């Protein structure tokens, strides 16, 4: 590949994703809040003008406000050629994504991901693509295919971010329900490891039981690489879009409250697998 790709956000997910783009042969221009992270890619972009020749610019940032600031505030969008495509792979609010698309000046695609750090490292992410511009999607597709092995075209601009929020709501709900089951089970003499092992061969299994609990909570590792604050943010986005759509979602509201409580009491940057700690005493859940 000879295309020049901009990549903004070299955090836990962004850095391995940028590495995969470099390995696929793309030339990169990178930007991060910590300039030292850009050293392995030839240095951090010192000004927005460094992105002027980019065919595609990928953002992988904590929220839509930071995405907007990087593109409009710092000025990346202003230097891009009209044919360039911006691909926001962050977990953003779809309402904000639509508003950004209306003023950006170049094509915008929302393409959030699922799979976490392990699949970011192997380039096997699931990618949910929302866009109103099929030509833009086609131009960005080689970049997306270097980052994931499953690229889903899910709907208009904002649909990808809506789907990501809903997916993470389901994950957060499964996590919270499993924490409740462990606490109740231990009250009846059930060992957490035994409970999780049985559930994982039964109909109650989920990604949370098979991976988060079996690999992190029960053994006390707490190192999934996905912050509790980010998952809580995605659940809050799901609750917000449900309200905006006028959809009655009482389970979602309860899960949203539960995760808001968790991050209010956990230390900053806590792994999402630690969310049960404010809910239950240590002797009740590992």
UniProtKB/TrEMBL annotation:
Alphabetical list of PROSITE patterns matching this protein: 3_HYDROXYISOBUT_DH (PS00895)
Q: Where is the 6-phosphogluconate dehydrogenase NADP-binding domain?
A: 5-155
Please give the Pfam families that the UniProt record associates with this protein: NAD_binding_11, NAD_binding_2
Its taxonomic placement starts with: Bacteria, Bacillati, Actinomycetota, Thermoleophilia, Solirubrobacterales
Q: By its UniProt entry, which SUPFAM superfamilies does this protein fall under?
A: 6-phosphogluconate dehydrogenase C-terminal domain-like (SSF48179), NAD(P)-binding Rossmann-fold domains (SSF51735)
Q: Which InterPro entries match?
A: 3-OH-isobutyrate_DH-rel_CS, 6-PGluconate_DH-like_C_sf, 6PGD_dom2, 6PGDH_NADP-bd, HIBADH-like_NADP-bd, HIBADH-related, NAD(P)-bd_dom_sf
Q: Where is the 3-hydroxyisobutyrate dehydrogenase-like NAD-binding domain?
A: 158-278
**What's the family?**
Belongs to the HIBADH-related family.
Keywords (A to Z) from UniProt: NAD, Oxidoreductase
Annotated GO biological process: organic acid catabolic process
Name this polypeptide is given: NAD(P)-dependent oxidoreductase
Q: Please list the residues that make up the active site.
A: 164
Q: Name one GO molecular function term.
A: oxidoreductase activity, acting on the CH-OH group of donors, NAD or NADP as acceptor
């Amino acid at each position: 590949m000879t295309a020049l790709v901009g990549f903004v956000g070299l955090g836990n997910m962004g850095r391995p994703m940028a590495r995969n783009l470099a390995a696929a042969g793309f030339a990169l221009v990178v930007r991060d809040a910590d300039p030292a992270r850009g050293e392995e890619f030839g240095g951090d972009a010192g000004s927005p003008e460094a992105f002027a020749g980019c065919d595609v610019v990928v953002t992988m940032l904590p929220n839509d406000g930071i995405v907007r600031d990087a593109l409009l505030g710092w000025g990346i969008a202003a230097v891009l050629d009209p044919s360039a495509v911006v691909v926001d792979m962050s977990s953003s609010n779809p309402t904000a994504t639509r508003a950004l698309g209306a003023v950006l000046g170049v094509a915008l695609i929302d393409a959030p991901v699922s799979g976490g750090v392990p699949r970011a490292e192997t380039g096997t992410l699931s990618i949910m693509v929302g866009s109103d511009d099929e030509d833009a999607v086609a131009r960005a597709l080689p970049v997306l295919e270097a980052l994931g092995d499953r690229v889903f075209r899910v709907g208009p601009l904002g649909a990808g971010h809506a789907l990501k929020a809903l997916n993470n709501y389901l994950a957060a709900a499964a996590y919270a329900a499993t924490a409740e089951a462990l606490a109740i089970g231990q009250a009846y003499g059930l060992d957490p490891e035994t409970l999780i092992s049985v559930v994982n061969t039964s109909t109650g299994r989920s990604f949370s039981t098979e991976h988060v609990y079996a690999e992190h909570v029960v053994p006390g590792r707490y190192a999934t690489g996905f912050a509790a604050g980010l998952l809580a943010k995605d659940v809050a986005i799901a609750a917000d879009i449900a309200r905006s759509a006028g959809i009655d979602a009482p389970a979602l509201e309860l899960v949203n409250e539960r995760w808001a409580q968790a991050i209010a009491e956990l230390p900053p940057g806590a792994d999402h697998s630690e969310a049960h700690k404010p809910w239950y005493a240590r002797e009740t859940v590992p």
